Every structure is written in structure tokens, then in C-alpha cells.
Amino acid sequence: MAAVNGAHVWKALQDVPSIIMACNTRNPLVIPGILKAAEELDAVVAFELSKREIYLTNIEGLYPDGDHSLSGMDPASYAKFVHEYAQDYPDALYFLHGDHIQLKQVNKQQIWEAQDLIALEIEAGFTSFGVDPSFLSIPENVALMTTVARPIIEAELGLEAELGEITTEKGYTTVEEAVEYKKRLNDAGIQPDLLAINNGSKHGNYDPGEVVQVATGRTQEIYEATGLRIAQHGITGTPLDQIVEFAKVGVLKGNVGTLWQNVLLDNVDGLQAKYEAWAEERRQALGLEKLGMEYANAVYLEETLGLPDEVKQKVTDAAYKEAYEMLVAFQSKGTGTIVREFVSATLS
Predict the structure, then answer these.
(1) What CA–CA distances, in Å, run from 9 to 152, 158, 295?
(2) What's the CA gap between 304 and 271, in Å, rounded?
(3) Does residue 312 sit in helix, strand or coil?
């Protein structure tokens, strides 16, 4: 067993104080190092990309060849990269998760895009999904969940529901909001495995001097009130001693994304300068207020895949070191055995 159904992972670990590391690997070169660490620690790991990372950026004119993912990969090619690298780590247990399938408005186009992406990911072998209408009111959120999550539920795959847009000025998700959200979902026949909330985390790198402020107390209150384990977004830059506390307050899934991009850029000479120059040129050309350099991943995908083996190994080694430290802090060691035993008992 190597690839596993994400739903089995969430159910097997429902009462286990561990966190599954979910890795947004915008470039595939970091994947081997993560798998190596997971195999050594007998830790389950998830590989995931968000809608903009694997499908569409929805930024008109960004790429000359038309809109596509910021990684340059689609669900099928991403799955292929992960599965091929995993052949070298046969004892590593992993699964594919569709991250941040966002619906920012209630309209036919966004619904169609979400449904299309989910269909493509199911076809590619993804077995867990995060549907994200968190920008909307709770009734609208639930209505969209009911509309787009049905194929996931019918296929008995993992489901992460999201309440409380990450990094907003709206304040932390309240216990009352979480309880109402769960009730409305349940009334609609939806039983999510995980709940993502706004508890003060942020996506991307923290600025120098910026303090990490994750409200662990609020997180625990929501977990205890809803009984739903929490998906913690925006872990890059969080001190390891703080991460250790997350499992104690109900967190079961921890998203780590920008860290892997940092690993790539720190270990490939001159690549960050290329990313920054491309992003600034496109920002000015499109008249945008800002444009993150993560959008350059697609432009330089083929170049990085053609790097010399010694450079690729340097990236692998750095990713392994970071992944090992993270998995230990996540208290993920041994989760592979727990999940294997659960799957064996479930399917017997």
C-alpha cells in the first residue's frame, strides 16, 4: 500500500493527537525529500495544490498562452509526478488532496469551475478535497457546498469544509458560527471530516518582525463545540514549538505550502531573481497593485525539471530536512501504521 484514500486517513486518526502534513508542492522537485522523511518516520503525508495552483489563476492576460495553473501542472500531471517519485519510497503512505477549491461568488461560472476541477481531480486519483466558499455568508457557503461536494460524498472520499476566510479583517471564526455551520451542513446531508477556520494564521511568508498569532484557545473551543478536527492553514514560518501545540487543540491537518517554494529557491542559484523579475514585469504590464512571485512557477517548471542531478539532489536533501522536522513537530510518526491497520480492518 502506498497511495491511500484520504477519507480513511481522517477517520483512522479522528481521536489521535497527531497532524497530517499537507504539502502544497508548487514545483515537483521537493516531493522526493518529503516522501523520504515520511517513509523514515512511518508518517502519512498529503500532497495538495489549490485551485489557482493546479487549475486556473483567474488573472486575465497573466500568461501568454492563456490562463492555467500557477504551477504549470494540472491534476493528472501532478498526480503522475507524485506517483512516479513514490516508486522510490514504497513504504511511504500518502494521498492527494484538492486544496482550496474556492468559490468567491455565487454564480454559474464559479460553480462550473469547481465542479470541473473536482471531476478532474477524482479522475486523477485525488481522494480528499477542501471546498472553500469561505468568502461568503454561511447560508451561501452551505448552498454551494451542497451543489459541488456531492460527487466527493458519493465516492466516499475525504471532505474539508471551510468557514472563515483565511487572513481577513473580519476577525476570528466564532464558536457560534462554527456550530451553526456544522448544523446547516449536517441538515443538508453533509458530514465533513475537517473544518478549516480563521484563527489568525496567514498564507505565505511572515514579514521580518511579524509575530505569528494563531488563536489556539479559539481553535480548541471550536473543536470541542463541533467535534470536528481542524484543518490548520498557513503554517509556513510558524515556530516548531508552537506547531507542537496544534495537535493538542484539535488540529488534524496542517497545510505547508510556501516553505517548499522557499526550499526550491534557496537551493537553485539565481532562480529567485528570475521569479521576482518575471512577477514584477507582469505586474506592471497588467497594471496590478501586487503579484506574488509564486505565479512564476509555471514559467520555470520545465527549466527546473532540466536542472543537473546534483542540483536536484540538493533540493531533495533540503526538503527532506524540513519535512523531517515538520513531521516530528506534527507528531506524525507512526500514523502510517495506524492508517494501515484501519484500512485493513475496514476492508476485511
Answers:
(1) 15, 8, 31
(2) 9
(3) helix
**Phi, psi at 24, each rounded to 5°:** -85, 90
| pTM of the shown model | 0.94
Residue-range domain boundaries for the chain: 6-347
What's the CA gap between 239 and 230, in Å, rounded? 19
Scanning the structure block, which residue is given the C-alpha cell 540538493? Answer: 314
List average pLDDT for each run of 10 residues in the chain, which is 348 residues long. 90 97 98 98 98 96 96 98 97 97 95 98 98 94 97 98 69 91 98 91 47 75 96 82 90 95 98 98 97 98 98 98 97 98 91
* 132, 103 Cβ separation under 8 angstroms: yes
Calpha distance 295→204 (Å, rounded): 13
Q: Which of 158, 230, 145 is nearest to 185 (CA)?
A: 145
- Give how far Cα 53 sits from Cα of 48, 68, 102, 144, Å: 9, 9, 12, 21
Fold of 6-347: TIM Barrel (3.20.20)
